[in-house]
Design a protein that fits this description.
By secondary structure, this protein is α+β, with helices and mostly antiparallel strands. It has four domains: 206 residues, Multidrug efflux transporter AcrB transmembrane fold, CATH 1.20.1640; 127 residues, Multidrug efflux transporter AcrB pore domain like (Alpha-Beta Plaits, 2-Layer Sandwich), CATH 3.30.70; 203 residues, Multidrug efflux transporter AcrB transmembrane domain (Multidrug efflux transporter AcrB transmembrane fold, Up-down Bundle), CATH 1.20.1640.10; 86 residues, Alpha-Beta Plaits, CATH 3.30.70. It is 61% helix and 7% strand. It is built from 24 helices and eight strands. The strands form two sheets. The protein has a four-stranded antiparallel sheet, sandwiched between helices. The chain has a four-stranded antiparallel sheet with strand order 6-7-5-8, with helices on both faces. Helix 11 packs antiparallel against helix 20, helix 19 packs antiparallel against helix 22 and helix 21 packs antiparallel against helix 22. Pfam families: MMPL. This is Membrane protein. Its main location: membrane.
């Protein structure tokens, strides 16, 4: 036996140690393959709104029909030119713009050898088209859909096209000496700016998240070994997930956007760290009891595996409920996030225990725990922070939970005023972007909807009648039949029907991302019914409207589904009905309070112009599915202690012993989600704030005060319909020594 200990370490059988080393090597292999794939994951993203539309939306039908009027679906790239002094464009300026328009098709795109003309629909371009006030002009470059979907030199050609056009226009127009300025926007320019915003997602975002977690773990553990082991666990879990996600995204099986990729990165790092904190905490506890690290790890793993698996299963099932969404970017987040959590779960339950077994007590160096038989219940009623909190809950349970509930309800009162009806392009980015500048220039000199017309598909025989109805609408500047709008001074192009259908288009007076344009789409969908019941209305404004409507539908469908799933998982975990019901209700109240606070912050402090319609759903999924983790960590330990001691002392012991680890986990998750703010998009900043604030609220108020105090007040009935052995032993009539075990220890 002594020889075996010399060879394999104290309390670590040789075969077990070899198995641990094999597990570590296997994960290193996963990391070596998955690491490079993670760095290239953004190559399979789709970030255009059209690719997220529900299949049965009117705007989706129009997109499919419009593509039949041309060999390629068009993605317009719009160049807007003005004079810096605000004066009219003269003949010299017109000649310079014409020359620019003629030169653009031959513009090279990076080092690929391709030119802009390779991605222009039929080699066509529109413009330059002067504004009525003669102070601006448009050059519209209709790009093929392949410019968005293809990948050349590691990026979509539309990104290279926008960059090349911006550089060419700036240099050529500056050379005229006429004070001409330009900006590039339209749908193509917007996609390019989104791609630029997500450019750092593979490197910067992940690096920031890992650095934040590293700093927190160094403070928590005061050890250089454990933080690195935990971070490696998170990275390997992410690599495993990416190895599954990338081929699925390439094949179109799942939708991957920059938003879902960024959120998945944060989910994996946050979840893996939370699971690690729980496992390491249990391991530290057992090392105070057992000399053998193998025995300590076995007991720690057995104690932690149930809440970790339950937590992971809850989040995975909650995310998979997103598959019920109509919006494809929302439904795509479901499997992407679920695969990420699965990777984090597997790494946390295999790689990290293997590392802990190999290092043993040295993993905690220089503060390695000693065998001193420090027991969990010793924390209750002490002067430590969580000893004091548990003491407060034991002395004043009803006062504590009522006060916590009042605070939460007061914050929740502001939730109904949360504005999630969409945002304009200007309010989408946190930094200045060329596409926003282009849209503002268009609004100054043209009908605001120029370049993003309303599109109507009708039977060919009703086309002229439909055009009349469209043009008569108060929100329409002009309307025409066919793919190409008429250009002043040039013959009107012939519009040929396709399969008995005709395309009617109209320029809206309001920008395509405005409420005015969406109202115009609603009116046209009603007013075109008398012309033809088969008329369908699409275009960018219709896409925005359909996204808003689908988001409302998704919220109504998915929220109840997630609540049912979480409730059932908790019932199985806690063998109770009442306790899961209390946990779910508490987390819903916490979510409402978070949304109320977010409304005050977004509106009155940060001055955001509104929120994406998907924000409430994303916030609900992350806060309820992730926030319930901490209640799971708490209540599984409470149940474990209650079986031995009785419910009320079990609650106090569970709260005292899990307080530090769960608080650390909450801080880590809040900090990792805060890393999303490095990306200059309002949507992700809002998600980051809602989740970070909500997790901290759940950690310090719901899990620390509301849930334990309410459970303590209810007593053994909280496990209804079950009864725990500890409560039966403490029942009236029991022996005096047995009854004493159910009294609040240290209170």
């Amino acid at each position: 036996m002594s020889e075996q200990r010399v060879a394999s370490g104290p309390g670590r059988p040789r075969l077990v140690l070899l198995a641990a080393l094999a597990i570590i090597v296997a994960w290193l292999a996963v990391g070596s393959v998955g690491g490079p794939a993670t760095g290239r994951l953004s190559e399979v993203q789709k970030n255009d709104n059209a690719s997220f539309l529900p299949a049965d939306a009117e705007s989706t039908s129009v997109l499919e029909s419009v593509a039949r009027f041309s060999d390629e679906e068009e993605v317009p790239l719009i160049v807007v030119v003005e004079r810096s002094d605000g004066e009219e464009l003269d003949l010299r300026a017109g000649a310079a713009l014409l020359k620019l328009a003629e030169d653009l098709p031959s513009l090279p795109l990076g080092e690929s050898g391709e030119t802009l003309g390779d991605y222009v629909v039929d080699g066509a371009r529109i413009g330059p088209v002067p504004s009525e006030d003669r102070k601006a002009a448009l050059i519209v470059i209709p790009l093929k859909e392949a410019a968005v979907s293809a990948v050349v030199d590691g990026e979509a050609p539309v990104v290279a096209a926008a960059d090349a056009v911006r550089t060419k226009a700036r240099i050529d127009l500056a050379a005229t000496g006429l004070g001409l300025t330009s900006s590039v926007g339209g749908p193509g320019g917007l996609i390019a700016d989104f791609s630029a915003a997500f450019a750092g997602i593979d490197g910067v975002l992940l690096l920031v998240a890992l650095c934040v977690v590293l700093v927190i773990l160094l403070v928590v553990y005061r050890s250089p070994v454990l933080p690195l082991a935990v971070l490696m666990s998170a990275v390997f879990g992410l690599c495993l997930a990416v190895l599954v996600i990338r081929p699925l995204a390439e094949n179109g099986t799942i939708e991957l956007s920059g938003q879902s990729q960024g959120i998945m990165f944060i989910l994996v790092v946050g979840a893996a760290t939370d699971y690690a904190l729980l496992l390491v905490s249990r391991f530290r506890e057992e090392l105070h009891e057992h000399e053998s690290t193998w025995v300590a790890l076995k007991r720690a793993w057995r104690g932690a595996v149930e809440p970790i698996v339950a937590s992971g299963a809850t989040v995975i099932l909650g995310l998979l409920c997103l598959l019920l969404a109509d919006l494809r970017n929302t439904s795509g987040l479901g499997p992407v996030g679920a695969l990420g959590i699965a990777g984090a779960l597997l790494a946390s339950l295999t790689f990290l225990p293997a590392v802990l077994l190999v290092f043993g007590r040295k993993a905690f160096w220089p503060f390695a725990p000693r065998v001193d038989h420090h027991h969990a219940e010793d924390a209750v009623g002490t002067r430590s922070l969580w000893g004091r909190v548990s003491g407060l809950v034991g002395r004043h349970p009803r006062r504590t939970w009522v006060a916590a509930l009042v605070v939460l309800l007061a914050a929740a009162a502001f939730a109904p005023s949360f504005k999630a009806e969409g945002v304009t392009i200007k309010d989408t980015f946190l930094t200045a972007t060329d596409s926003v500048d282009a849209q503002e220039a268009i609004q100054r000199h043209f009908a605001a909807g120029s370049g993003s017309p309303v599109q109507v598909i009708v039977p060919a025989e009703q086309a002229e009648a439909a055009r009349t109805v469209v043009e008569a609408d108060s929100g329409i500047e002009s309307a025409w039949v066919g793919l190409t709008p008429p250009v002043p001074g040039q013959p009107t192009p012939t519009a040929e029907p396709v399969d008995g259908l005709q395309l009617v288009q109209g320029t809206t007076t309001g920008a395509a991302d405005s409420q005015e344009a969406e109202d115009t789409v609603r009116r046209l969908r009603a007013s075109l019914d008398p012309v033809s019941r088969d008329a369908v209305v699409g275009g960018q404004a219709a896409i925005n409207l359909d996204v808003l409507d689908a988001s409302g539908r998704d919220l109504r469908v998915i929220v109840p589904a997630i609540l049912v799933v979480i409730f059932l998982v908790l019932c199985l975990l806690l063998r109770s009905i009442l306790a899961p019901l209390l946990l779910v209700v508490a987390n819903v109240i916490s979510f409402a309070a978070t949304i109320g606070v977010a409304q005050l912050v977004f509106d009155h402090i940060l001055g955001f112009g509104g929120s994406d319609p998907a924000i409430p759903l994303y916030g609900f999924v992350f806060l309820v599915a992730l926030g319930i983790d901490y209640s799971i960590f708490l209540m599984t330990r409470v149940r474990e202690e209650s079986v031995r001691r009785g419910t009320r002392p079990g609650i106090l012991v569970g709260l005292a012993v899990t307080g530090g680890v769960i608080t650390s986990a909450g801080i880590v998750l809040a900090a990792t989600f805060s890393a999303l703010t490095v990306l200059p998009l309002v949507f992700l900043v809002q998600v980051a704030f809602i989740v970070a604030f909500g997790v901290l609220l759940d950690t310090f108020v719901v899990r620390s005060l509301l849930v334990p105090a309410l459970s303590y007040d209810i007593g053994p009935k909280v496990w209804w319909p079950a009864r725990l052995a500890g409560d039966r032993r403490a029942a009236p009539g029991a022996a005096p020594d047995e009854r004493r075990t159910s009294e609040p220890s240290g209170v």
